[in-house]
Amino acid sequence: MKKSLIALAVLAASGAVMAQSSVTLYGVVDLGIGRVDYNPATLGVKRPNVKTQMHGNAIVNNGASRIGFRGVEDLGGGLKAGFNYEQSIDAENGAARSGYGRQANVWVEGGFGQFKMGRAFTPSYNGMEVWELLGAPGYSVVGNTYGFVGRSSARNNSQFSYKTPVFGGFSGEIGFVTKGDYHLNGKNHKIDANLIYANGPLGVGFSYNKVSKEKANYALGAKYDFGMFTLAASYNDARNHEVTDDEGNALGVNRRSGFTIGGLVKFDNVSVALDVARDTKHQNAYDSTVKYKKYTNAVVEAKYALSKRTFLYADYLRLDSTNNYGVGLRHNF
């Protein structure tokens, strides 16, 4: 009888421990049909002999297909620990996309804020996401014109970051990558930061990032949700704008600055949006005498929600004189 009671007590205790932790499987499947004329290797030059085809991870997709796991454990006393692992997948054939790991980090948080280590979103991207009109889709006119606050990726490898608690809608985040971990021959470190105000319908974000011995990038934007209508605007100064090809290979660095303004209208489960970017400066990052053409870029998006997790979308992206468009279906699970 005593052994049975002990066994029941152990089971009850283990059940209580298990109840304090959880792991969630989640992901996105996004496929569409469209045409991509933009050639990142040559500014303003269209791709030759491009045909309309299926796309799963292109600039005409709403989001990149992926699968991930996230977990959290309640350590007690208001303290929590967790992790996030996420991998990009090719929804056209089901394969994992080599070299496109998305998240791989561990964190701890409490009343003091949150500390995180590993591959994660940059603080500057998190600041941009607060005001990006469409939620930073693949066809974001901001991201495709000025990068993610000048960077080719929205994530940093080997990043240490700290995020403050929210005080009256204000919060801040700072990230750091050491010289030994950053990719520039181990001679440069990187600092990344944001300052955010998000309270009710108003969101404002300031983003900053800098690689040592290089010029800094920054962006400031705001978005206001009136209910049926949303308005967003920003200023971006990407003084080290990284240009990469479709596989993420570096093609060069330029300076690109400009404004964006856009609006979104909702009608029940339908939304229509227009976001426009206009260059004020476009030149070689380290030789101001080498200037490129200034562009007015724009994206038009229409979405129809089939449910809370699934929607149809259509987009047209005018990017550096090229025409890119697509229609697709996205399902979140």
Automatic annotation (TrEMBL):
Localization annotation: Cell outer membrane
Cellular component, GO annotation: cell outer membrane; pore complex
CDD domains per the UniProt record, alphabetical: gram_neg_porins (cd00342)
Pfam families: Porin_4 (PF13609)
Main subcellular localisation: membrane
Gene Ontology BP, a term: monoatomic ion transmembrane transport
Keyword annotations: Cell outer membrane, Ion transport, Membrane, Porin, Signal, Transmembrane, Transmembrane beta strand, Transport
GO molecular-function terms, A-Z: porin activity
Domain Porin: 7-323
Membrane topology reported for the UniProt record: Multi-pass membrane protein
Signal peptide (UniProt feature, chain positions): 1-19
PANTHER family assigned to the protein according to its UniProt record, in alphabetical order: MAJOR OUTER MEMBRANE PROTEIN P.IA (PTHR34501:SF9), PROTEIN YDDL-RELATED (PTHR34501)
Complexes and interactors: Homotrimer.
Protein's name according to its UniProt entry: Porin
Lineage: Bacteria, Pseudomonadati, Pseudomonadota, Betaproteobacteria, Burkholderiales
